Amino acid sequence: MSLASRLPARARLAGTLAAGGFAIWLSYQLSPGDRSLYTLMGLYAIVAIGLSLLIGFAGQISLGQGAFYALGAYTAGILTVGLDPDDRLVNPEAGIDPALALVAAPLLTGLVAAVIGVPLLRLRGHYLAFATLALHLILLAAIFAQSGFTGGQDPGLAVIEPLEVFGWQITGVTGGTARHTAIVWGLVLVTLLVALNLVGSRAGRALQAIATSERTAAAAGINVSAYKLRLFVLSAGLAGLAGALYAFMLQFLSPDAFGVFLSIQFVVMVAVGGLGSVYGAVAGAVAITWLEHELRELGTRPSLLGFELPDQAPQVFSVGVFAVILIVVILFFPRGLFPALGDGIRRLRSVRQEN
Amino acid sequence: MREFLQLVVVGVSTGSAYALVGIGMVLIFRTTGIVNFAQGSFAVLGGLFMVELVDDMHGMLAGFVAVLVVGFIGSLVGFVAVGFRHRTTPLASLIITLGIALLIASLNLLAFGDRPHTYPTIFDRAWDIGGVLVQPQYVLVAGVTLLAALLLTLGLQRTIAGQALVACADSRRAAELVGIDVRAVAVVAFAVSAGLSALGWVLLTPVDPVNYDSDVRIAINGFAAAAFGGLASIRLAYLGGLVLGIAQQLVVGYADQIPGLGQQARQYELAAALVIMLVLIGWRARHEVHE
Amino acid sequence: MSAAPLLEIDGLVVKYGPAVAVDGVALSLERGERVALIGPNGAGKSSLLNGVCGLVKPASGRVLLDGRDLTGRAPGEIVRAGLTQVPEGRQVFPTLPVEANLLLGAYGREFRHELVTATLRYIGRRSEISTRLERVYSLMPKLHELRERPAGRTSGGEQQMVAIGRALMAETRLLAIDELSLGLAPLVVQDLSEFLLRLNEDEGVALLLVEQNAVLALELCSRAYVLEAGRLVLAGPSNELERNETVRSAYLGGGLDVAEAEPDTPTEPSS
């Protein structure tokens, strides 16, 4: 909570609303190509905010947010096309209204998180990190294995039904629309405000106490496991919501899109943005999504700087260079880029004051 | 019964390879407080280098060279992971090792492509031990890994350098006060751990081919073995690896007897492994002292 | 005795973030001297020691050992220069046997940023180190008895001996001890003090005793500094400080050994 926490609450709120308004407006200004990247940034920002709360305030490292994202996407997709794989082919009316599926997805994801969270959250630190990573892999394995139900890798799950809420068209036959993007960024704004409100509330202070020392917090009468679980469920639900919106935008699901790297990326977004800073999480999501995209583009070129690039280049580029940048950033800014920026500005200001 | 014993043999073998990975994690964690996500990457490198070298030179020499090279790479990783004195937090180090694992995986993809790699085992036929058909490679893995674990324990107790490592694990502050450069010790811990992980897969690859992305499942299994010992005991990490390996093989071996799974059983192999791992971690973590 | 003091601290400032623990302290110590640093809990005594011994980088000031500037250097360098700290709570290596603890004291001295060369140097000096070990055992026969026992399974007083022995293995010229008496029975402390006195007089090892127990400190050391809230408030020979009004009431009052009032200071209240 570096730059932002220094401003008075009202200025902060005004600034956030203004930025949110701008982000929504921007949805209508971009070309479809740029817009899909922009939407992805928004979706990831929602996930990152949830994860930022989990890591920064509850002190829980989850390497499984990608799994909840996938769960939300598949839940929405499967509910929309119909639960019975045979029925899907013959009956176009199979499945429920996409709008209902959209609501059901985060709720179901949250429910799953609640169930597995009880035993899972007894683990701490690195144990939790590895366990959530394992959970992600288990989910992927299940998706592959139950390919009849989920479509698996091939042919995958096609979710071509357009999303309509109260007659308002959100996604069209070809997937995302400007309206969809606007709604995504609107949700980013809402999530941000909810998160900020949470941080400033009594619950937020309890979470801060838990992040500092669980034992002390418990001694002070705080129900530590209840708070951790609630936050875990909240962050899972947010990821599920983002996943569902993604499903309707892309209209095609396969396990490829939800690899372990995604879970790692979410953690990187939060770490780079600044632990414990929800604004940083949004900024981190935008930055990392943009970086990954740029690197992948770079990799698709046939040659770079005179070197011929092999077939695997896009993947190697995006992951490899990403990894190098990550290492360098964390080495020099272990608390995240945006707190470091805040410190830098503070130092500049104090220098200027001295002169 | 025969099938059961066969599964146990395979389990002991794969389990001891995981055990080496886990022991490496314990070593690093105890001396530096860092959880090394790149531990699986070292194993994969060991396997891949072995595959490359075994065509050009004698098997044992190839293995030796592979382990040394990966050990050296491990020292570089350690140097980076430890970061800057006073500045790099344990969480930052964790993320750095995550980044390194990603980097190594992408480099492996570039160099070796996306397909499983293996090399032919030197044994031409299975051994018949009391009616049980045993692949000699499994015996080799189990034997060598046990030897390595014993040598490590001996080295830590008897040599001054090993004792310096233990000292850092016991009390970093006191070690510093005595003049031991804790970061230099960390680099050595990483190097030894990397070598150990590599050794496991130098030997196991003929029966467990590696691909560029195998590091994730190896790291997770290695962590489970380490977690069995609370990330603190080398002996328990070894035992944990064996338990994990045997349990996984038994589940997979008898999975097709579980009604309802049928053909899907094979595909749940990894999932089963992971669930067992989670159970292990959960059981162990319950005994952890809460800070 | 040469002109330059063995240890010279000048205007030392140690901060933990914004909090100032040591606020411009200056002190000195001659070869073979026994000097005490006393003061209440939280006065900054340990912080001062940490700043001198390299565990914490001082914000400003200078630390000179035998004329050499060692300010802010790594602990290893400072150990090599001849200053070793015996930390609060002993801090032995609990799972290693006593002898290994001692040998590591010598090993640490060979460390210069890198393990392999340190090991080679150590092995090269093996016979010299063995001799040193024999010497330490002759000074502290109890340690020889306990040499195979894991250091964590020895008593508090024995651990203190191990820590001191470890420092001696590093050929220390100045032994800085942080809270010698902490958690130890009075008889044990008495034995240790006697030992330290002999060590100082026979082996010439200088002592810097950082102590909350002022009685012990003033009894053992010939000179003392009083530290309060990060600043030096008093300094002088121990017997003078023992008679000092403020010192007596703050640090010596109501204790076991209370200094007798001098007959020619009639204004001193009877104790």
On the 0 to 100 scale, the average pLDDT of chain A is 80
Q: Summarize the amount of helix of chain A as a percent range.
A: over 70%
Alpha-carbon Rg of chain A, integer? 21 Å
Shape of chain A: globular
Structural class of chain A: mainly alpha
Main beta-sheet annotation of chain A: 2 strands, antiparallel
Helix and strand content put the structural class of chain B at mainly alpha
| N-to-C CA distance of chain B | 46 Å
Estimate the strand proportion of chain A: under 5%
In quaternary terms, these chains amount to heterotrimer
How do the strands line up in the largest sheet of chain B? 1-2
The coarse silhouette of chain B is globular
Low-confidence stretches of chain B: none
Series of H and E elements of chain B? HHHHEEHHHHHHH
Rg of chain B: 19 Å
Q: So how many helices of chain B?
A: 11
Q: How many domains make up the coordinates of chain B?
A: 1
Number of beta-strand segments of chain B = 2
Most extensive interface: A-B, 46 and 47 residues
Strand content of chain B: under 5%
CATH topology of chain B: ABC transporter involved in vitamin B12 uptake, BtuC
Give a brief description.
The complex is a heterotrimer of chains A (355), B (291) and C (271). Chain A has 15 helices and 6 strands. Chain A has helices spanning 9-27, 32-58, 65-81, 85-90, 98-120, 125-145, 147-150, 178-200, 202-212, 214-219, 224-250, 260-273, 278-300, 313-332, 337-354, and strands at 157-158, 164-165, 168-169, 252-253, 303-304, 307-308.
Could you describe the 3D structure shown?
The complex is a heterotrimer of chains A (355), B (291) and C (271). Chain A has 355 residues and is mainly alpha-helical. Chain A has a domain at 19-256. Helices cover 73% and strands 3% of the residues of chain A. In chain A, the strands form 3 sheets. A two-stranded antiparallel ribbon of chain A has the order 1-4. In chain A, strand 2 and strand 3 form a beta hairpin. The longest helix of chain A is centred in the N-terminal third of the chain and has 27 residues, at 32-58. The mean pLDDT of chain A is 80. Chain B has 291 residues and is an all-alpha fold. Chain B has one domain (2-114, 124-286): ABC transporter involved in vitamin B12 uptake, BtuC (Orthogonal Bundle). Helix content of chain B is 72%, strand content 2%. Chain B is built from 11 helices and 2 strands, in the order ααααββααααααα. Chain B has helices spanning 2-32, 39-53, 59-82, 90-112, 136-158, 160-170, 172-178, 182-204, 215-228, 234-254, 269-285; strands spanning 127-129, 132-134. In chain B, strand 1 and strand 2 form a beta hairpin. The longest helix of chain B has 31 residues, at 2-32. Chain B starts with a helix and ends in a 6-residue tail after the last helix. The longest helix of chain C has 18 residues, at 186-203. Chains A and B meet through helix 6, helix 12 and helix 14 of A and helix 4, helix 9 and helix 11 of B.
